[in-house]
Amino acid sequence: MKINQLSLFLENKPAHMKVPCQILADAGINILTLSLADTQQFGILRLIVRDWERARDVLEKAGCVVKITEVVAVEVPDRPGGLAGLLDVVDQCGINIEYMYAFTFRRGDRAVMVFRFDDPDEALRTITEKGVNIVESVELFAEAGE
Amino acid sequence: MESRFAIENRIWNDAESLPRDQLRALQVERLRDCVARVAQVPFYKEAFAREKVTPDAIQSLDDLRRLPFTTKADLREHYPLGFLAVPREKVVRIHGSSGTTGRPTFVAYTKDDLALWSDLCARFLVSGGLRPEHTVHIAFGYGLFTGGFGLHYGVERVGATVVPVSSGNTPRQIMLMQDLGAQVLVSTPSYALQIAEVARAQGLDPRELPLEFAHFGGEPWTQDMGERIERELGLMAFNNYGLSEVIGPGVSGDCAARDGMHIQEDHFIVECLDPDSLEPVAEGEYGELVFTAMTKQAMPIIRYRTRDIAALNASPCPCGRTTVRMSRIVGRTDDMLIIRGVNLFPSQIEEALLRVEGVAPQYQILIERPGALDVVTVRVEMRPEVFSDKMSQMQALRERIDREIQVVAGIHVNVELVEPQSIERTPGKAKRVLDLRNT
Lengths: 146, 439
Hints:
The complex is a heterodimer.
Chain A: E1 2-11, H1 18-26, E2 31-38, E3 42-49, H2 52-61, E4 66-77, H3 82-92, E5 97-107, E6 110-117, H4 120-129, H5 137-143
Antiparallel strand pairs in A: 1-3, 1-4, 2-3, 4-6, 5-6
Chain B: H1 20-38, H2 42-51, H3 72-77, E1 91-97, E2 105-110, H4 111-127, E3 135-138, H5 146-158, E4 161-163, H6 170-180, E5 184-187, H7 189-201, E6 213-216, H8 223-233, E7 236-243, E8 248-254, E9 261-263, E10 268-273, E11 286-293, E12 301-313, E13 325-326, E14 331-332, E15 337-339, E16 342-344, H9 346-357, E17 363-368, E18 375-381, H10 391-409, E19 414-418, E20 425-426, E21 429-430, E22 433-435
Parallel strand pairs in B: 3-4, 3-5, 5-6, 6-7, 17-22, 18-19
Antiparallel strand pairs in B: 1-2, 7-8, 8-9, 9-13, 10-11, 11-12, 12-13, 12-14, 15-16, 17-18, 20-21
Helix pairs in contact in B: 4-5, 6-7, 7-8, 9-10
């Protein structure tokens, strides 16, 4: 199953990162995980929250440029070679990863990673066939205590 | 752009296709005559005495450069009619340009001037498809402004039907266009967009209006805007140019090739000059247009500085006219920036950005001089339509903007993508240029 990620455009300037975080805080929305891609001039902040529609609405209302993208949360064995093994599978399937980042929590002995694939549906189908465990969003948010 | 309307290549007046050498000889003769006629106008009398110019001194077009320039300020100084070259009783019409500050500047016409004006407008109307069987909806204001009357006379001269609607009450205008079956619209380009918008609001497809051609003037417009109008209204758009100080509309206009406006050189001598050095720029380069209206009776004008920036093209045109063509007006000398010796207009940046996104974005041009050289940064506000979560696409967007600016303006700039609403807005519009070089 795919989950919805919010991406935000930010200028790379002091205090600019805080603005969207404060907006979400004021709306009582918890950030489950995030990743920041930056250049010298601007950055792209990617966020996973439970109520992504409300988060999008409050951010857009505050004037932020927001984009919703479908990403896939995947379980990875939390041991040496765990991620390498998973990437091996992805590689065998001939799928391209745009970027990836991790959740801060674990599921037992497993870590959870967020993958942005070019074609999430195709990626989901092929890696599931290879036995990779996809995290359903419901479980994910339960795990995070939401 | 492809059009469903065929346009025949017709030339109204043989003077439009005179061989170049004959045209040049005619210009010299008319210029000499003009100098003789304006010699009694106090402003020119004084200037000619200072420069020791007499009509006989005009032997070739090069001698034009010995003549003084005329500016808007000169006209204002001789308010209201200090530039009259005929007795007051010969004047049959006064027009004027509003001017943003205070008094208008007036121009005057004799009976012959009005006939000439009509002919000049007929020329560009015919080159842009007008035929006697057409009905023309004129949505220009009729008043001191030259647009309404000039086009009106041109249409009458061709023998087509004029519907002199003037401006305002768009729903009524749409009704009249439908009921009278106007094939041709005369208006500003922005009013054409207004017509399309109002039509849609009425539940009408603007393409269902009978319009086939439009002749736009009164304000500069970009090619993108023209294409948008053509798409929305289902017509072919033609550009024409003029200013009251020179004669009004009829100075130049598009032909069927729509690759530059043919200047009516048998009546106007055009120069394209660097606005600072006042030296001619190379052909094809942008510069300030300067016109000499040689044949007007009431108010001939010598080397009038228009402050309009355009480029000239003297290459032969497939339409058969031999006259030089001018590009669209890309800016005014008032907003020209000089960057490392290259002229840059905010409108060029806007045009480049329009190529990237198709809609007018908010932008700001920042000019700094951290060392010896000018550095230009173009800030572009990010919009949801072009934002991507992928860094590669965002970098590609920046590169694309940079490339388009290089193509349009010929200079390399830094492109900064900025957050929405981060560019300071003065009431109504964004502050486009921030020149920090001398701070």
